[in-house]
Amino acid sequence: MAKEKPGIPKGTRDFDPLEISRREHIFNTIREVYRLHGFRPIETPAMENLSTLMGKYGEEGDRLIFRILNSGDFPSKVKEEDWQSRNASLISSRICEKALRYDLTVPFARYVVQHQHKITFPFKRYQMQPVWRADKPQKGRYREFFQCDADVIGSDSLANEAEIMQIIDKVFSQLNIDVIIKINNRKILAGLAGLIGFPDRFTEITTAIDKTDKIGLENVSRELIDRGLTKEAVDKLLPVLELTGTNHEKIQMLQDLLSSSELGMQGLSEVQEVFDIVEVTPLHCRLELDLCLARGLNYYTGAIIEVKSADVNIGSLCGGGRYDDLTGIFGLPGVSGVGISFGADRIYDVLQALSRFPDSTGTFSQVLAINFGPVERNYCLPALENLRSIGVQCEMYPEPAKIKKQLQYADKNNIPFVLMAGEEEMKKKLFSLKDMRTGDQQQLMLEQITDVLMKYFDR
Amino acid sequence: MAKEKPGIPKGTRDFDPLEISRREHIFNTIREVYRLHGFRPIETPAMENLSTLMGKYGEEGDRLIFRILNSGDFPSKVKEEDWQSRNASLISSRICEKALRYDLTVPFARYVVQHQHKITFPFKRYQMQPVWRADKPQKGRYREFFQCDADVIGSDSLANEAEIMQIIDKVFSQLNIDVIIKINNRKILAGLAGLIGFPDRFTEITTAIDKTDKIGLENVSRELIDRGLTKEAVDKLLPVLELTGTNHEKIQMLQDLLSSSELGMQGLSEVQEVFDIVEVTPLHCRLELDLCLARGLNYYTGAIIEVKSADVNIGSLCGGGRYDDLTGIFGLPGVSGVGISFGADRIYDVLQALSRFPDSTGTFSQVLAINFGPVERNYCLPALENLRSIGVQCEMYPEPAKIKKQLQYADKNNIPFVLMAGEEEMKKKLFSLKDMRTGDQQQLMLEQITDVLMKYFDR
Hints:
Oligomer: homodimer
Number of strands of chain A: 16
Strand order of the largest sheet of chain A: 1-5-6-11-10-9-7-8
Shape of chain A: globular
Helix content of chain A: 40-55%
């Protein structure tokens, strides 16, 4: 067989042991916090029926879905006329019945409807799995990436929004990342669109507002005028978007402005209630009402949530919101839910930029036993089993190679301790333990070694 | 949009919270043991270049690889002549460049070659990821399933085989499954083929022998004769395959039989050495030399390993062996390795059949706080945060629903304790804690509650 130069598809990644341990630090933290709040895990298959996914992510989304070719003699199943059309979209719908998961939300909606009779509502579920998108790969954007979602569905209580704030706060505290949680509400934005006299231009207005962070308010107002708003309307809107002060002050000013908008007032009262519940057990991080937060408004119907790093300018680390009809498309209408999704890749980049990964990530073996030959090896093996029984990760170098090579192995694999036993140690029933950082070496009994290790690894 | 009846592709599965917690029990046990032995994790992408996978799994394997349709206007990239051929194999090679991971071994080989300059050998890696095969789905066989592999490559020491026995033993001890580890060696089988005068019929002989478990020795001998072996040869082979006694006795008898076969004697000495090293720290389970074990001989070159349940007749729970040239196909020859793969689905079925899943699997929230209204909710929320800070998983029912409904929620979600506080408890600064199994209910201080819970959950 021919030799091939090995590589992987663009936009995909291999993860080495150090990267895996750092990613696990992130995933484990998120999972642990989800569980502390009573969320329950589900998993769905990597492949869904194509019909489950199509039409759920807009036209652009449909194009970015990876399709899986039908097995067997797929061309024979296509009508001659269709085959001769050579039309990509038509033919792909004839030769592909399955596609790769594009996000976790649509499969979750499908899951809830399919298994509705065995689910107890409200259903608090989390799901941490990879998704695939045929997006153009670029820095920080991959064709395979992980999503870490949690949703509560079947309850419209705002206590759920408050709990999500607690979860976000806990995850980032434990990861040692300082963040700002931004919150807004679709109903406030709808009230504002009414206030300035353009209630029917909600989509254009919010699409423009959402860019404030990137292009600034001046450009946003220019865009609004380009899109047909009057100067008067924009002049009325801008000071509202520029509102400063505490959340309480912002809400008070908005209550005056929006007093005639029932929807707007409802949005404000929802935000106020979330703040009130959150304050019962105050957050570590800052929680901020941000009227320019206007993402995801083709599905969010109430709260909109976004989390940013206070130290690294990298975009959103986590986002979410409330939606009123997740499962309607699959035949179960009227199920309200609220959810969030953590972006593991961005969180990784922030931890990397701030050097905040724990020192323990990247250490696998904690002890390497040097192999001087069969007799010495057999003397050390029971000691290693003993260490494992108390949770120490350790290994024996598999062959009696030169000691320099074995020490290099310890060094390159970031193994902090080396265990050795030659004739002298065996006679005394001792072991030499070498600390690879300091170079210190002492002859110890096995029990003393476990003490040293327990202390070092802080168990 | 039209309503669709939700479903998933055949051969794939949704996992509900109970199933996830049981699967995690299996995965965590295997991962923990791999780590105790100094193995390091890697992950590879779900999609590989099609050319990386093709030709690695035989003709049948090639057909079972799931191909991913190229994005964009894929038909326009196919030559008219090819398109008109309507030949499935030809066209799929023109419209698909990527495919789904079929196993973990080939991606691992590709990984090692691609990243060889940053890998320290011997490289002990583990990898636990899903794989996909377009196999006909049937009971216990899925199109998406998980593999849990560990390999040591770049070392031909038999200490690695011995370590793998220790790993298998530890995993199944911790899972509380009684198993038999079967071991054989390709070289012994080659010696036997020589002994009976048919060294060039190695593949036919071993393919037949491998079926002994399923069809019995009588049918195996019939098959061997059908395949052109003489009756004399089969009569010489059968008593060897029927050898009983201890491993030591079997090896002694084989040493007499194979004394003239250099290869056979080498195989025996390898098996003996593995047994000798294993005995330094004896196993809990039975380790058995089984001459009928002859699987995977198109890639295994030394040890062959298989694990079976002692109690449930369900096929192999774990398999592996030594291969001498894993990475040659990708341009890095001469790298010897030995590895194993645990079959999580079969292990799941055995634990299910024996009712050996720990009681804790399936419990997520440990405490549900009943929501009597905003005041009572706000009284309980800090207590829940307090419980979470010591690791108790707990939740507040999101709205002040009827208490019967809230208790049903606890019941259906397998939540063992319910926390309640009404006017009386709030006045006394206490909480009522109800044990859902016994129905017992007591008024306690928060510190007393943490004591009860710590004791119950054995922390």
